[in-house]
Amino acid sequence: MTEQAVTQQAANGPATGTTSSPSSAVDRRDIAEYALRLGDDALVLAQRMGEWVSHAPELEEDVALTNIGLDLLGQARALLGYAGSLTGRTEDELAYFRSDLEFRCAHLMCLPRGDFAATIGRMLVVAAYQWELYERLSESADETLAGIAKKAVKEVAYHLEHARMWTLRLGDGTDESHRRIQVAIDDLWPLVDELFRTDDLEQRLATAGIAVDSSALRGPFDAVIDPILAEATLTRPDVPAAAGGGRHGRPSEHLGHLLAEMQVLARQFPGASW
Amino acid sequence: MTRPATFRSPIAEGRPPVRLSGPDADRIAEIAGAVPDPELPMVSLTNLGVLRAVDVDPDSGAITVTITPTYTGCPAMNTMAEDVVINLRAAGYPDVTVRKVLSDTWSSDDLTQEGRQALRDNGIAPPAASATDRAAADAPVACPLCHSSDTEQLSRFGATSCKSLYRCRACREPFEYFKVH
Questions:
Q1: Where does B28-95 show beta strands of DSSP type E?
Q2: Facing B73 at nearest CB: one of A73, A143, A150
Q3: Distance, CA of A221 to CA of A136 (rounded, Å)
Q4: ipTM tops 0.90
Q5: In angstroms, rounded to a whole number, what is the distance separating the alpha carbons of residues A158 and B131?
Q6: Are the beta carbons of A154 and B103 separated by less than 8 Å?
Q7: pLDDT per residue over B68-115, tens digit each?
Q8: Cβ–Cβ below 8 Å for B103 and A61
Q9: For testing the chain A interface, which of B19, B71, B83, B179 should be mutated: the one with the most A CBs within 10 Å?
Q10: Does B155 contact A8 at a Cβ distance shorter than 8 Å?
Q11: Residue B133 has pLDDT above 80, yes or no
């Protein structure tokens, strides 16, 4: 991220009058926290996708996975830029100078990238969730969130289609590819529930027409995922949900390691640019 | 203050016009809009449809150029913004700020006819005529080299966010397709 990123953030922020939050009764810190949750999901998953550079099974897939990571990074920058503009911080400060306890991403985003099947399984779940989320957030009473969501929903539709096609290919492919994608889905499934948990903050914003009630997304999400799993000859896991807590400062055990790599340069050389 | 004007390129009928306000805004829009996309240098910002507004403060002469990304993560945005500032400075406009906005959301429908032809002339298949008309969006992609419609998608993702990879079954050449978005 660069100086221009800061300009962009400032330009998108409320200081220039391009953003309006609809009601003075709404606490701007609530909106900032909500944007941080969505932005951290995108940022951490973008970092995971970036780990595939030069490691994907074929060149086209290398390009695809990193392009998807780039889309997520773009969404993260817009969301963190907005969160920062409401709380007096830059997107770089938020990305590089918070500890794992201050991140607000769901545990699913933090899972190590695993093999290709694990990456595809997670992409399928996250893209289906984000697609339902951003479609509804496009109607947000908060103009900035609506603008980001309108852009993001089109990008996420491509991610979902890409993951769907690979899930079908792997699930309905060889015994080994079927085994691997089923293991991937089984391993991540306990973390799916966290995406659809709501809380008081989200409910306050949802009531004001700003946020989307996460719990209302579970039905539409299942309606997207279940037919894909069935067509891919995969079994939908029946497992208890993990404790979660990523949205409330109880981060995944994997997050600290991810941040160590992502943040090291910015922390060692503050203000570095290249 | 001079009257608000709307700069509309003659080849851009049907696409959202560039919003103009303040003295000289139309000339400034011509200069800013002529900046090429760094990744697709055959297409100008005007023809890409990413130039959204030019506002000139009638008192100070300060210029604000508003552009919007094709994709949120598009890394070409910073270069575009720098090039707009450089070109306007060279044309005698020292006080330029480039503002980046996400709404109104860019669509591949914003690409002008001239921009589509420039892509085609350079071996890149332009996007289907309408991103909202499903029939048009799903129509077969014509090969930009031999014009055959007998083509296949190799990958939904290409060298930049806005393109995917195709191959022509007729002339056997690979080519890029500017995605409907």
A1: 51-56, 63-67
A2: A73
A3: 13
A4: no
A5: 14
A6: no
A7: 999 988 889 999 999 999 999 999 999 999 999 988 889 998 999 999
A8: no
A9: B71
A10: no
A11: no
